[in-house]
Design goal:
Strand content: 15-25%
Shape: globular
Oligomer: single chain
CATH topology of the domain at 43-165 and 204-241: Rossmann fold
Number of helices: 9
Structural class: alpha/beta
Radius of gyration: 17 Å
Strand order of the largest sheet: 3-2-1-4-5-7-6
CATH class of the domain at 43-165 and 204-241: Alpha Beta
CATH superfamily of the domain at 43-165 and 204-241: Vaccinia Virus protein VP39
Order of helices and strands: HHHEHEHEEHEHHHEE
């Protein structure tokens, strides 16, 4: 079942073989997530065999903040991380660029329609922040990391969950086959085939892990740690805001 193919600005359809940049990427990403929001959770659970649930729980474990902490969930989507955070006693606030995602969200946490590259949040106002599977969808990463450093208080924590490509050749081959061939077919049946052809390719936007770590550190964080999850098909970056 399709919910309408995502489009770029001026009604131009998203081309899954083209990786847009700048404003074109911003429009494409927002339209794409508006399109796939109604069945986003269902497709995620099926295509990851529910590993995404485990990864999000690991993200909050590694964030390491106590109950009562105020935590932003950036690119909050349908509210998976918000639900997990509130369930552990945190005060969660979700921000997302896609109104479709916010409308499909299943969480009691307050939600804000906003670009996380320019958050309507006061400097040093929150104890921490999470972000799940969104780094590759941002127009630029250094500005996002600087914005994270601005809104998180000194000593606060961040945990950034993202897809990855396995380091081992055999695992990489199987991963590319599954996400390049099988996932788009799942997406075409359950949601939007164009979007799920584009999403596996969007991993190309991501810098290599050492560059990601250095970019986070340069933005104003220390104790930056990077770890691969589940054989390297996902990655998690955690860090502490400088004092």
């Amino acid at each position: 079942m399709s919910h309408g193919s995502p489009v770029l600005g001026d009604g131009v359809p998203l081309d899954p073989e083209h990786l847009p940049t700048g404003d074109e990427k911003r429009h494409a990403v927002r339209s794409m997530f508006d399109s796939i929001a109604p069945r986003y959770d269902l497709v995620n659970r099926i295509m990851t065999f529910r590993l995404d649930v485990r990864w999000r729980r690991r993200t909050i474990d590694e964030l390491g903040l106590t109950a009562g902490s105020t935590i932003l969930d950036l690119a909050s989507g349908t509210g998976d991380l918000c639900r997990e955070l509130t369930g552990r006693g945190s005060v969660a606030v979700g921000l997302d660029l896609s109104m479709g995602m916010l409308q499909a969200a299943r969480t009691e946490a307050p939600l804000v329609h906003a670009d996380i590259l320019a958050m309507p949040i006061a400097t040093g106002a929150v104890d921490g922040a999470t972000c799940g599977f969104a780094l590759r969808n941002l127009v630029e990463l250094p500005g996002f990391f600087r914005e994270l450093a601005r809104v998180v208080r000194p000593g606060g924590r961040i945990a950034l969950l993202e897809v990855a490509q396995p380091r081992r050749r055999v695992l990489r081959w199987g991963h590319e086959l599954y996400f390049g061939k099988v996932v788009p077919r799942i997406g075409a049946v359950l949601s939007d085939g164009t979007a799920y052809r584009y999403l596996p390719r969007s991993v190309a936007y991501l810098p290599e892990p050492p560059k990601l770590v250095e970019a986070v550190r340069s933005a104003g964080f220390h104790a930056v740690e990077h770890q691969f999850l589940t054989g390297g098909i996902a990655q998690l970056i955690t860090a502490t805001r400088d004092s």
